Amino acid sequence: MNKDEGKLLTVGVLARKVGVTVRTLQYYDAIDLLVPSEYSEGGRRIYSRHDIIRLQQIIFLKSLGFSLEKIRDRLFSTESAGELKQVFKQQKEMLTSQVSHIQETINLMTKVINEIKIGSEIDVDILFTIMEATKIGNPYSFMMRHFSKGQIENFSSCFENEDTVSEFNKTSQALFAELIELYKQKEDPDGIKGQKLAAKWWNLVIFFTKGDPKLIQNMFDIGANEDNWPSDVKDLKEATTSFLGMALNTYLKNNNIKLPLKEAR
């Protein structure tokens, strides 16, 4: 048995150790998000190691901006060491992804500054769109460089307010982490997990393309060309080209969804 397995903490002690209020823990209990394993004879909440690990997941996801409702659906079981390892691996992937996006933003600012220094003209609409996509943590923002002005306007219209941007950011970050993890675990793209991911990904594509078949096809073509990918998203590129592409092809075929054929050149 783990040496901490039998260690129990009262609500006050736990609150102090993790930096939340007692009222917060009471609220999590009231909404069945974090129900303590025990109650004392006097009715005080008593938390076990398992409860503490669940709270860690809640605090982590909350720090990324997830609502409590969304967090409830994303909590993993941690009954075994393997499950606990999986939780921390996914959290690490999400944090690593964020670091990468921050660095990408810094790189973009450097490029813009250099362009201004040499007096080069910059298409303002394209620049703003790339910056917005980078700001919301989208590693696929490089695709914007290959879109037409009309397609860019279509894309931009999806993000009319901060709530939409925030929700898109949270959803996409979770999908990026899930995609990379399934790829590393060598899951079958045609299997249950692969097809569930493909369904969620397709819904995201439909959201920011508004179902425009030409824009969807353009995105697929850009993503399929490995020369288009920046060097700082290597893991995502490999997962996208080697796993997601196959999963989406199967999903589209199974659901009778056909992309438009390329026009003859």
Description:
- With about 260 residues, the chain is mainly α.
- Helices cover about 65% and strands about 5% of the residues.
- The protein has eleven helices and three strands, in the order βααββααααααααα.
- It has helices at about 10-20, 20-30, 50-65, 70-75, 80-115, 125-135, 150-155, 160-185, 190-210, 215-225, 235-255, and strands at about 10, 40, 45.
- α8 packs antiparallel against α9 (about 190-210) and α8 (about 160-185) packs across α11.
- The chain is elongated and about 65 Å long.
- Keywords: DNA-binding.
- GO terms for molecular function: DNA binding; DNA-binding transcription factor activity.
In summary, what is this structure?
It holds the Pfam family TipAS. The chain contains 11 helices and 3 strands; from the N terminus they run E-H-H-E-E-H-H-H-H-H-H-H-H-H. By secondary structure, the protein is mostly helical.
Which characteristics define this entry?
single chain; 265 residues; mainly alpha; Multidrug-efflux Transporter Regulator, Chain: A, Domain 2
Given as residue ranges, the uncertain stretches (5+ residues, pLDDT < 50) are: none
Distance between the termini: 68 Å
Strand order of the largest sheet: 1-3-2
Multimerization state = single chain
* Average pLDDT reading: 77
Work out the helicity level: 55-70%
Please work out how many helical segments DSSP would assign.
11
Our Rg estimate from Cα atoms comes to 22 Å
Give the overall form: elongated
Number of strands: 3
Number of self-contained structural domains? 2
Structural class of the secondary elements? mainly alpha
Strand content: under 5%
Elements, N to C (H/E): EHHEEHHHHHHHHH
Main beta-sheet strand count, sense and barrel state: 3 strands, antiparallel
